[in-house]
């Protein structure tokens, strides 16, 4: 039996689980704590709502194909948050000024949202510190005008 197992191992390559999936929870915990602290929030629950609101505000401005390009630059948990509960019938909206988009962030689940006026910049700063920034920048230049500015910390 051992000889058969050795034979099979020698002929069959075994795909390992990618590290980004093995480390997904640890990486997300680090990110959400960073976002919480950057925004001066009290809890990771508050930070989660802020992050979700910022991601959905950005997503509203992208076509599906563009959003998927962006999603691929995100780590697994943020990627899942970005695409979760997506109404594919919702029309895209243009990028607008930071103040208007911040009000959109703050209007998300308004009764549970304490996102500061700096929410977009705070999430952008935390994101940039916790992912491959060069990869993010390569993706953002492929997206509509306004995407690069949105993710400026």
Quick structural summary:
The protein has 153 residues and is mainly α.
Task: Write structural notes for this entry.
The protein is mainly α. The protein has one domain (29-150): Orthogonal Bundle (Globin-like). It is 63% helix and 0% strand. It contains ten helices and no strands. It has helices at 2-11, 19-22, 24-39, 44-59, 64-71, 76-83, 98-107, 119-130, 133-140, 147-150. α3 packs antiparallel against α8 (119-130) and α4 packs across α7 (98-107). It is globular and about 65 Å long. It starts with a helix and ends with a helix. The model has no long low-confidence stretch (mean pLDDT 93).
List the helices and strands and how they pair.
Blueprint: H1 2-11, H2 19-22, H3 24-39, H4 44-59, H5 64-71, H6 76-83, H7 98-107, H8 119-130, H9 133-140, H10 147-150
Helix pairs in contact: 3-4, 3-8, 4-7
- Note the run of SSEs as H and E: HHHHHHHHHH
User: Tell me about the biggest sheet?
Assistant: none
Terminus-to-terminus distance: 58 Å
Number of domains: 1
Indicate the overall shape: globular
Calculate Rg over CA atoms: 19 Å
Relative helix content? 55-70%
Second rung of CATH, namely the architecture: Orthogonal Bundle
The named CATH superfamily: Uncharacterized conserved protein DUF2267
**In terms of per-residue confidence, which ranges show pLDDT below 50 for 5 or more consecutive residues?**
none
CATH class: Mainly Alpha
- Give the strand content: under 5%
Q: Report the mean per-residue pLDDT as an integer.
A: 93
CATH topology: Globin-like
Structural class, from secondary structure content? mainly alpha
- Number of DSSP-assigned strands: 0
Q: How many helical elements? A: 10
């Amino acid at each position: 039996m051992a000889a058969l197992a050795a034979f099979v191992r020698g002929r069959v390559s075994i795909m390992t689980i990618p590290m980004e999936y093995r480390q997904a929870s640890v990486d997300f915990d680090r990110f959400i704590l960073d976002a919480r602290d950057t925004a001066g929030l009290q809890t990771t629950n508050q930070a989660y709502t802020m992050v979700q609101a910022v991601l959905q505000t950005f997503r509203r401005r992208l076509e599906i194909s563009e959003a998927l390009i962006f999603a691929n630059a995100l780590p697994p948990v943020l990627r899942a948050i970005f695409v979760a509960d997506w109404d594919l019938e919702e029309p895209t909206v243009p990028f607008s000024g930071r103040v208007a988009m911040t009000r959109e962030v703050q209007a998300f689940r308004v009764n549970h949202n304490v996102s500061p006026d700096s929410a977009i910049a705070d999430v952008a700063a935390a994101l940039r510190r916790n992912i491959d920034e060069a990869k993010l920048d390569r993706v953002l230049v492929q997206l509509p005008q306004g995407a690069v500015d949105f993710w400026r910390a």
